[in-house]
Amino acid sequence: MDDKTEKYLWEELKLLQPIIDKFDNLSFQIKKWFLGILVAVAGVAIVREKPALIIFNFFLVLVFYYAEAAYRTAHDSFLTRGRQIQRVLRGEETLEKSEMPPHLDRFLVHGDKELAALWKHMIAMARQPRVSGIYWLSLLGNLLLLVLSLV
C-alpha cells in the first residue's frame, strides 16, 4: 500500500469514528422520544376515554422500532467499514479499489441488499431484550390498556 492510500485510510477512519460514536446517542434519543410520545398518547387516551388512541400507540411502536432498526443497520455498516480499514492498516488484508469507500447513506433502503440487512437487524433486535425490551413492554402495556378500556 502506498503512502497516499494509507493517509486516506487514516483520514477515513478518523471521520468514521465520531459517526460510530454518535449512533449510541441516537439510539438513546430514539427511545427517549418514543417513551415520551407513547406515555403522552396513552395518558390522553385514558383521560379522554378514547381507545382509538391506544391503537395509534401500536403504530407508534412499529414506527420507532423501524427507526431504531434503520439506525442499527447504518451503525453496523460503519462498524464493518471501520474494522476493514483497521485490518488493512495492520496489513492483515488488502483493499481493492471497488471496496472504497462505502455508501455513507447505507441506512436508507435503496435495494434488496439494504432491505435484507434492515430485516436482519429488526429480527436480531427482537431477540435481544436489552435492545427491544422497551418495545415489547410497550406493546404489552398498550394491549393491557386497550383491554381495560374496552371492559
Brief sketch in words of this structure:
This protein is mostly helical and 151 residues long.
Supply the number of helical segments.
4
Oligomer: single chain
The helix content, as a percent range, equals over 70%
Give the distance, in angstroms, between the N- and C-terminal Cα atoms. 71 Å
**SS-derived structural category:** mainly alpha
Rg from Cα: 21 Å
* Total domain modules: 1
Beta-strand content: under 5%
Largest sheet: none
Low-confidence stretches: 102-109
The number of E-state strands comes to 0
What do these coordinates show?
With 151 residues, the chain is mostly helical. It has one domain. The protein is 81% helix and 0% strand. It is built from four helices and no strands. α1 (3-47) packs antiparallel against α2 (51-90). The radius of gyration is 21 Å and the shape is elongated. Mean pLDDT is 78; it is low at 102-109.
Which properties best describe this structure?
151 residues, mainly alpha, 4 helices, elongated
List the helices and strands and how they pair.
Blueprint: H1 3-47, H2 51-90, H3 112-126, H4 129-150
Helix pairs in contact: 1-2, 1-4, 2-3, 2-4
